[in-house]
Amino acid sequence: MSDVNDATTAKTAPTPDDGLKIADGPVLAADGTPLKKSLSRALRVQKLRALALVAPLLIFVLVTFIAPIADMLFRSVENEIVSETLPRTTDLLADWDAESGTPPGAPVFKALFKDIFEAQEAKLHTRLGSRLNYELTGVSSLFRKSGRKVEDMAEVYQDQFEKLDRFWKKGENWNTLMGSDAWNADMAGWDPKSDDKQPKFELRDGIDVFLPATSESFANYAKFTQVEDEDNLAKKDPWALVYSSLYDDLQRAEPVTFAGLKVAGAAELSEAASAVADFETVNFAEAFTKIDKDWQDVEVWRTIQAYSPRYTNGYFLNAIDMQKGADGPEMRPENQQIYLTLFWRTMVMSIVITVSCILLGYPVAWLLANLPARTANLLMILVLLPFWTSLLVRTSAWKVMLQHQGVVNETLVWLGIVATDDRLALINNQTGTIIAMTHILLPFMILPLYSVMATVPQTYLRAAKSLGATNWTAFWRVYFPQSVPGIGAGSILVFILSIGYYITPEIVGGTSGTFISNRIAYHISSSLNWGLGAALGAILLAAVLLLYYAYDKIVGIDNVKLGG
Amino acid sequence: MSKTVTDDGFVVFDRVQKSYDGETLVVKDLNLSIGKGEFLTMLGPSGSGKTTCLMMLAGFETATHGDILLDGKPINNISPHKRGIGMVFQNYALFPHMTIAENLAFPLEVRKMSKSDREAKVARALDMVQMGSFGGRRPAQLSGGQQQRVALSRALVFEPDLVLMDEPLGALDKQLREHMQFEIKHIADNLGITVVYVTHDQTEALTMSDRVAVFEDGRIQQLAPPDQLYEEPQNSFVAQFIGENNTLQGVVKEINKGIALVQLDDGSLIDAKPVNVSKPGERTQVSIRPERVEFDMSRLNEGAHTLKAEVLEFIYMGDIFRTRLRVAGNDNFIVKTRNAPDQVRLQPGQTVEIGWQAEDCRALDA
Amino acid sequence: MKLTKTLLATSALTVASGMAFADAHMANEMTIVSWGGAYSNSQQKAYNEPYAEKTGVKIINDESSADAVAKLRAMSEAGNVSWDVVDVTAADSFRLCDEGLAMEINFDEMLAKGDDGSSATDDFGGTLINDCFIPQIVFSTTFGYRTDMVGDTPPTSVCSIFDTEAYPGKRALEKRPIGNMEWALLCDGVEKEAIYDLLETPEGQQQALDKLATIKDDVIWWNAGADTPQLLADGEVVIGSTYNGRLFSVIEEQDQPVAMMWDGQMFDIDGWIIPAGLTDERKARALDYIMFATDTQRLADQAKYISYGPARASSAPLVGKHADLGIDMAQHMPTDPANATNVFNFNYEFWADYRDDIDAKFQAWLVQ
């Protein structure tokens, strides 16, 4: 007790009462700590316990719901693949003027050569081709073809160096020349069959002064071989690209002497340096044009340039039928416009489905809420019955019902209501989608309606009638307003579910009854254009949130009840 | 306490029967005539058929057989909203999405009354129940008692001749309930309306009504003004149901000069007034009110029979004493005595003699 | 890129938890992904059962081929590929190979020689269309028609689908441009050799769509291979395109009044890929399975159960009778000379380039 030390003048430890009496300074607990602190300490355990209880759900929601949505939103703008795969090219291309109408100059083609060479070693060039093919048709094969041929371009130099001196043929000579002495010693002592890791490649000190381009290419080669391929560097011969870089280094304007380089191979370097002047060279622009004349197409370069940034609005533009034109965003050609139509159609049809659900579900919910318990339970089972069968089965059943030779049409023909060659088109169009989806989503309308109606006593209707209201007035003025929260909840449920539906529209919607979700599904699972799928999804999400906000403003979200 | 009302047949139930399932009758052969301006209470335990009768009158249930007449006209086939009967429901049934004023204006609105008339009437009706300043509120913002007043004024605002009340005070606490009983009674008297009131609370029935119809098993067991009902129950159900009662079982020995000699099951003899026993040898249940039992034998008539009783419990209740006795094998025989200076306080275990005036003890059906 | 990966890794956690066992991959298990139904059944009989018997490897079947591309990409991004061998269409293999999701195959080294001694490359010949795809069967998208709805003049030409006067009624076509565009141009009088050159141009694409527009109101567009057989069986369409194996089953197994029309059939290939980045052990097992399942005899065996042609030339002479029906299967193969008088070979390179673009136009045209 006596060691309690605080700001008060009291000789003994303060009691809580004392604490309260102290005019200035914090209120203290019995042990002299500030009351707030001990309170929060006491509550911390409770808080932690509460947190531990919700933690599983929180983590579950984060992982399965929030993270995928965040990922989707991110994907809709993410575009790092272009600048990561073609770093040199995109750098240089930034200064190129697409308006000039001429393809970029030699340095860009040379950068492209290096980028594609490295990309094809890592097998990334076709992936980039697929990505850019979404924006410009033909890029996919352009990159595939070019990837196959860049090797040939570099081999022009490789062959000449190797012809000049057998020294250049051997991978180990390269390793000695480019690698540091310490690393070479480590490699010599490393047993590939052991579990030890392969010594990580190190550039020879100062070699990058003599051979800057070669050093870079060789380091990339070494790193890729060791890390990505997990191959033994000692057993490998360098990429053809390294030879082309060596040529570049030796070809520099002022002659370089390699006298200062104290390493095996210096002599060969000097020999090569004096020989390169007579080397056959490659004109990269021409070489690429020979692979495919599209490399002279300004459109290709403009597309690469437009998609160089790490983030792009291209997917979003695409998602609203626009594209990146020469002068900023512009509408797509009319024969490619589809998404706005589909967004609009999705909204309109979802509203129609929601309204149909209200019209059909309201009387059923009314019955459920007002019938004797036994009958109501039976009816409730009938309402829930659809949930027991798979969605596909239900939708396919509608096919049997609605098709030309289907049950509905056969019945109508039999009854003589429609002529046999004038059967109703009830499926593979909007009607089919509306009918099938209304049926499938009906329980989501009936259940909230029912749970709200069950809380509205019959007495209100009796009261209204006793006050002189007709059946209709009593319903419309007294009962209906009280069931509106149920309609609100049911409508939100049905509407949000229906704008996201794609299986049913896909099966019964034909061409006029499909939704935006069908396109999203196509891009996710078939075209693999996840960025566009994500952008479409993000727009849909935004539309839902906007509608939700509007609903809150107009009706008030308090007016939504799922029960009691 | 009850005013005299001429039974002019304003409301008539004529041999009315009701069955829900086609097998059992909920209301059996009901005949009832209610006078204009009368306050009639239908009293009975739950399931006795009283609410069904009310609902048939309101038009929410149809009579299976028989006629219901309002002001001389049969109303069986008139839909509820055309009957012009005001009604107050058990849980008030105030429309939660409307304000109080809108609730009151509702019956006027459906009668196509002009807006200014409506407002005037609504204001008057609210003032009548001292709720004038609550017009803009919603029902959920009011207390139970306030809602009850609003419900009452809503049932009255369109000036019906007949108002039905279905256990309107059931949800209120005791004090408020007592207060509201008087208020409803006063308003009904002032307006001169006819009220049919349903309750299972006998105190309520006795306090408010001109006449009370006691329901049991789908029949009216007794229809009488409150005092008569209490003092002269016609059968053992009514005697049991209304007020507190001591009952003893026995057989009629003889009936002489309007006094029946009853031999109780333990052999002792008592005097009783024969109500629905007619000849010796019949089994009977005699019933006597706790406040009519005497400890002082000097106050009894000459030759009156008395009984021995053992005191089981003595409870001090302030204004009265409540003594529980064992009488002729009945352990639950209650005697209430006024807390007067000379009144003895009995001790449990004590044996006393008790007796009563023959006319206070009613020999009823067994 | 880091953020994407982190996000994906977390969201993949849930998926991964479900696959935890799959990932553990007990020494003697492999997951084979295929299409389900009669097709998987034929593989089960011809490859999986003999292989399991021979090696004792337990084979887990997964019927995810329809979503294989997307699922494989998701698994690869999450760093947890639980599949060992995946059956995909040639077109899908292009995407998987381009995306680096499928392993590159050294055909002569990793596949069995033909039983006539020819190298794998020679034996598979033209069916080797990219570096990752191990061909298995040749199938075709072709036509079936209702024999009772065409009168006395059954259709003999692919252009019958555009002839609504001679063949009134609905027709079923796949809801994608591939195939339909080629047929449209062919029936619009374009020389077969010139079709793809023309389809590269916007004008050619528009011409094809315009031709399709003449029957747009009469077409029911299908998504699943089972749709057309059902529509034919129900009498909803008079003629429709679908995979030849589906039609075989409707005609020979279900005995419906339906007949084949092989004219203009579109040859396509189905085969295996091995996901990229498997551990050495799993890769070795997958390759061992592939070596077994794509040898001459095994491919010929599959034709006993389904009317798809083996991708190896050396298997063709070994094709025998149907295992249950006892029908000689050779004449039901799309590759049978009598059937293959007028065929299109799926132009994979072309469609890999133009699929996104033409599909966008095709879908926009459908929606209009």
From TrEMBL, chain A:
Keywords from the named record: Cell membrane, Membrane, Transmembrane, Transmembrane helix, Transport
A GO biological process held by the record: transmembrane transport
Domain ABC transmembrane type-1 span(s) in chain numbering: 343-551
Location(s) in or outside the cell: Cell membrane
One annotated Gene Ontology cellular component of this protein: plasma membrane
Transmembrane segments: 50-70, 342-369, 376-393, 434-457, 478-503, 530-551
Gene3D superfamilies tied to this protein: MetI-like
Annotated membrane topology: Multi-pass membrane protein
InterPro entries linked: MetI-like, MetI-like_sf
Main location: membrane
Coiled coil regions, renumbered to chain: none
Family: Belongs to the binding-protein-dependent transport system permease family. CysTW subfamily.
Annotated protein name in UniProt: Putative spermidine/putrescine transport system permease protein
Organism of provenance: Sulfitobacter brevis
The organism's taxonomic lineage, starting at the top: Bacteria, Pseudomonadati, Pseudomonadota, Alphaproteobacteria, Rhodobacterales
Automatic annotation (TrEMBL), chain B:
EC code(s) of this entry: 7.6.2.11
Enzyme class: translocase
SUPFAM superfamilies (alphabetical): MOP-like, P-loop containing nucleoside triphosphate hydrolases
Every ABC transporter domain range: 11-242
Keywords, in A-Z order: ATP-binding, Cell membrane, Membrane, Nucleotide-binding, Translocase, Transport
Gene Ontology MF term list: ABC-type polyamine transporter activity; ATP binding; ATP hydrolysis activity
GO cellular component labels: ATP-binding cassette (ABC) transporter complex
Entry keyword annotation includes Nucleotide-binding: yes
UniProt cross-references to NCBIfam families, sorted A to Z: potA (TIGR01187)
Record text on subunit structure and interactions: The complex is composed of two ATP-binding proteins (PotA), two transmembrane proteins (PotB and PotC) and a solute-binding protein (PotD).
Family: Belongs to the ABC transporter superfamily. Spermidine/putrescine importer (TC 3.A.1.11.1) family.
Function, in words: Part of the ABC transporter complex PotABCD involved in spermidine/putrescine import. Responsible for energy coupling to the transport system.
Name of the protein described by the UniProt record: Spermidine/putrescine import ATP-binding protein PotA
Species of the source: Sulfitobacter brevis
UniProtKB/TrEMBL annotation, chain C:
Presence of the UniProt keyword Ribonucleoprotein in the record: no
Keyword Glycoprotein applies: no
InterPro entries attached to this UniProt entry: SBP
Keywords assigned: Signal
Signal peptide bounds: 1-22
Domain of life: Bacteria
Protein name: Putative spermidine/putrescine transport system substrate-binding protein
Natural source organism: Sulfitobacter brevis
